């Protein structure tokens, strides 16, 4: 147990200490550590502990963030308008999730579930979602997630045409911004997906992402991408949290495979036009 209080802000030091204690005393005796935060926790500082604390990141790695959504009450909280500079924790917890369990589905109608699914996907188009009663899901869904594994980004960045996010298909020149979501409240936190063929200049991509993190790091919660880059038969995969960015070559493209770039950004007040322009600027 970490100290009483809010795990996200007051006891990050305790979290580090607890993790290091566990590693020292129980080394090789556990496969996973599950941290349950309060319903009011901000996920970012917890996530960042694993990326930025040198000792912690040497011994443990963040597998993924699982968010349990109460299907009966979540919509109200997700739509709640907070005073300026006050974080809506429900939105944040959905935004940072790698897996989302929509629980208590027996208490709502199919229509309610569909609306809630749309809302969740609008905020976070990367997370896999499962419906559940009394929180029952397969263990595989919540452990061994690989949400921060560069090797597994390819399957994570699937852009779903039927829901959520602000999708743009550059290859078709279609601009269908949010046509599914007229009924949704305008959440400041959303996902922007870019799907486009074409080859990118990796140096330009590096510059672009670095600039983006410098200028928008605070508002850019997560990003993931699979890219087709010049002079390489391998995909280039990257993932980032705020101003931490990781990237490396991934799987080789098959000879007859369409080399489609896929990028997803999740954040607050994302400037979709600027993101698309930045991406285009990296195309050869
Ligand atoms: N009908 C129904 N009730 C559920 C389901 N899951 C949990 N409950 C009930 O909801 C009540 C409150 O449980 P939760 O909402 O899980 O409580 P919680 O916020 O996780 O509680 P703490 O983590 O202990 O603070 C309990 O009586 C549960 O039995 C579900 O899928 N369907």
From TrEMBL:
Residue stretches making up the CobW C-terminal domain: 189-283
InterPro entries: CobW-likC_sf, CobW-like_C, CobW/HypB/UreG_nucleotide-bd, P-loop_NTPase, Zinc-reg_GTPase_activator
UniProt feature, compositional bias: Basic and acidic residues: 159-168
GO cellular component: cytoplasm
Keywords: Chaperone, Hydrolase, Nucleotide-binding
GO molecular function annotations of the record: hydrolase activity; nucleotide binding
Pfam families: cobW (PF02492), CobW_C (PF07683)
Region feature (Disordered): 159-183
Catalytic reaction equation(s): GTP + H2O = GDP + phosphate + H(+)
Segments of skewed composition (Basic residues): 169-180
Protein family: Belongs to the SIMIBI class G3E GTPase family. ZNG1 subfamily.
Protein name per the record: CobW C-terminal domain-containing protein
Source organism (scientific name): Gossypium tomentosum
């Amino acid at each position: 147990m970490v100290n009483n209080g809010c795990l996200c802000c007051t006891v990050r030091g305790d979290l580090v200490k607890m993790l290091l204690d566990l590693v020292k005393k129980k080394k090789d005796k556990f496969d996973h550590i599950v941290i349950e935060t309060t319903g009011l926790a901000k996920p970012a500082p917890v996530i960042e502990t694993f990326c930025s604390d040198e000792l912690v990141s040497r011994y443990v790695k963040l597998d993924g963030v699982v968010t349990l959504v109460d299907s009966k009450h979540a919509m109200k909280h997700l739509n709640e308008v907070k005073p300026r500079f006050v974080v809506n924790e429900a939105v944040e917890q959905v935004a940072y999730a790698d897996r989302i369990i929509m629980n208590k589905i027996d208490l709502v109608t199919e229509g309610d579930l569909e609306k809630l699914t749309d809302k969740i996907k609008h905020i976070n188009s990367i997370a896999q979602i499962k419906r559940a009663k009394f929180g029952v899901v397969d263990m595989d869904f919540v452990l061994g997630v690989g949400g921060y594994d560069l090797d597994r980004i390819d399957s994570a960045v699937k852009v779903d045409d039927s829901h959520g996010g602000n999708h743009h298909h550059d290859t078709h020149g279609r601009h269908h911004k949010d046509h599914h979501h007229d009924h949704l409240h305008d959440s400041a936190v959303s996902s922007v997906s870019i799907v486009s063929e074409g080859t990118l200049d990796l140096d330009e991509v590096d510059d672009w992402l670095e600039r983006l993190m410098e200028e928008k790091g605070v508002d850019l919660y997560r990003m993931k991408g699979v890219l087709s880059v010049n002079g390489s038969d391998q995909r280039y995969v990257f993932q980032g949290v705020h101003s931490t960015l990781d990237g490396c070559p991934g799987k080789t493209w098959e000879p007859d495979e369409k080399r489609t770039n896929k990028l997803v950004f999740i954040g607050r007040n994302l400037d979709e036009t600027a993101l698309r322009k930045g991406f285009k600027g990296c195309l050869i």
